[in-house]
Amino acid sequence: APPTQVSFSEVAQYEGCPYQYRLANSLGFENVLVPELGYGRAIHHILRVIAEEARESGQPPAPEEIRAILRREFYLPFANRWAFDSMSRAADQLVDRYRGEWADDLTRVWATERPFEVHTEDGILTGRADVILDRHEGAADSLAIVDYKSSTDADRDGVFAFQLAVYAAAGRGEGLEVSAAFLHD
Fold this sequence. Notes:
The protein is an alpha/beta fold. Helices cover 47% and strands 22% of the residues.
């Protein structure tokens, strides 16, 4: 039989609430549809697109390019016009603040959505690092993993720290020089 394979997202969901995990993954129950559904994913997607454009050009996109990305890529499938406009303004402020605080990181994007696997005797744990930066602290072969989160639940910090540790260990197992891992919340 093939080894059991689970994603880190599934582990995190189980860690958050085993009952909710069972309802969603074993019994097929869907989350309640709310206008905000997808906001975190939309922000994550926009930050990924910005990082990819920065990797291609070697510099952070200009503010007008970021606004064009937001207009083109921001998607909330269940929001009415008022909720969409409100969350779009919030996303604009958040992404603008992110660019201001992390512009230097955007000049060092080595990879986006980099898949990782950790093999154990019980199975395989999979995940994707949102962004990997090169030249950590100026060292040529030194990498830093960055994972985006939009959670406001402080109780999840331990799960997120574990996720970063797993990704760093997986990267080192592949021979990468992973020197740091950061959570951008």
